[in-house]
Design a protein that fits this description.
41% of the residues lie in helices and 14% in strands. By secondary structure, it is of the alpha/beta class.
Length: 416
């Protein structure tokens, strides 16, 4: 997509389409990338394989199995789930074992079945809509405004299998002859686990990646409390492994390098969270926090904290609303004005509806996109001719100014 004005240069440079491939971290430790949105890992035990995560769907699971079999024909003895998001491929990954009724340990947090059931209820419709905005599934595949580096599209359904080992953090078991200990792994769900293999000096996890972590998800779901995440990351930092296998991003080796990565991730989120709370305690609103709380230069400019997935502003807003509830702290929100009423007031103040649109156009021309969108949205609510087209242009221009693929996809889908 050369010269696409809706594509930020940082996003184009650092988020690349992934072709299916297998990375060998060291002998007996492998990562499959490019099949699912998330990685799949597998390690050789004494009498078979231990696999980590299964993809999102039946076909993803089958494709992961096919690629694993290009490396090893050893039996799968266990599948570990870092959290509930990538548990839907179990039926495909273990298709042969299930048909032959072989014994395979399926290991995960006790809350995984509860959360999967929750995702089938009415809330599923809300999340499905929001996630479709965030992941850009409705965007075109080519041309200006197309989705960038899309995940492979597997349209079939989930194939979850019941856990055989529902384990809390701090549990020790042996899998395929390898000792394994579960550790805290809370991040974007409350059913996360990290898995430590002492004999391999290895941890598989869903805690940090090579981008700024996303605590302000546009895809919906419950508040992502940073405190359990910080507890897990800081505990891991105190005793880092030699090899780190992430749910998202490249595998990493080197104890000192891994410790540094964990430390700066924890430093960034703890700083934003605590500064947000300090400002709220002084009477600031969530909107004050959004513009006043930011990262120091050494973290903001760190290449591994690029805002390609989450954004600092979104994390700050998530912390503010997550800790205080629906009221941002702005007094006027206690006696709220519906946006349609606000639009009518703005039109009266402008003198005519045409002036309202003209003001939005002027703001758009001077690249004051937040102002332009506010007034264009008001004009569209009043069904002013040309407002819808202007709003679309503003959203597309804003999409080109964010390096975060989640925000770009949402803006472009709303424009579409």
């Amino acid at each position: 997509m050369p010269n696409d004005p809706t594509l930020h240069p940082e996003l184009e440079r650092y988020r690349k389409p992934l072709e299916p491939r297998i990375i060998e971290t060291r002998a007996g430790i492998y990562t499959v990338r490019g099949v699912s949105l998330a990685n799949c890992h597998f390690v050789r035990g004494n009498d078979g394989l231990v696999v980590v995560d299964s993809g999102s769907s039946l076909q993803e699971g089958r494709e992961l199995r096919r690629l694993i079999r290009t490396v090893s024909e050893e039996p799968v003895r266990a599948v570990l789930l870092t959290h509930s998001h990538y548990s839907g491929g179990l039926g495909g990954l273990l298709e042969k074992e299930l048909e032959e009724k072989q014994e395979v340990a399926i290991v995960g947090h006790p809350r995984i079945p509860v959360n999967l059931q929750k995702s089938r209820d009415l809330a599923k419709e809300v999340w499905a809509y929001r996630v479709s905005l965030e992941n850009g599934s409705r965007l075109p595949r080519e041309g200006e405004g197309a989705i960038h580096a899309p995940a492979r599209a597997w349209r079939d359904g989930r194939a979850f299998c019941d856990l055989t080992h529902a384990l809390w953090p701090g549990t020790e078991v042996e899998l395929a002859g390898l000792p394994m200990r579960t550790e805290k792994g809370f991040f974007d769900t409350d059913d996360g686990l990290a898995f430590r293999f002492p004999s391999l000096d290895l941890i598989a996890h869903n805690l940090v990646t090579d981008q700024f972590p996303n605590f302000g998800s546009l895809g919906g779901d419950r508040y992502r409390d940073p405190l359990p995440w910080l507890e897990a990351v800081e505990a891991l930092e105190e005793d880092p492994p030699e090899h780190l296998l992430p749910c998202h991003g490249e595998p990493l080796s080197g104890r000192a390098r891994i410790g540094q990565k964990l430390r700066k991730n924890a430093e960034a989120i703890r700083l934003l969270y605590e500064e947000t709370l300090r400002l709220l305690a002084k009477g600031g609103s969530a909107h004050d926090c959004r513009v006043q709380v930011t990262l120091p230069d050494h973290l903001r400019e760190d290449p591994e904290l690029r805002c390609l997935y989450g954004e600092v502003e979104h994390a700050v807003l998530a912390f503010a609303y997550g800790e205080t509830g629906f009221w941002s702290g702005e007094t006027r929100e206690l006696v709220p004005l519906h946006p349609k009423e606000e639009a009518q007031c703005l039109a009266e103040l402008a003198g005519t509806k045409g002036n309202l649109l003209a003001y939005a156009e002027k703001a758009y021309a001077s690249d004051r996109l937040a102002v332009a969108l506010h007034f264009a949205d008001a004009a569209e609510r009043l069904e002013i001719s040309g407002a819808k087209e202007l709003r679309k242009s503003i959203l597309r221009k804003a999409a080109g100014q964010t390096p975060a693929w989640t925000l770009r996809n949402t803006l472009l889908t709303l424009a579409q």
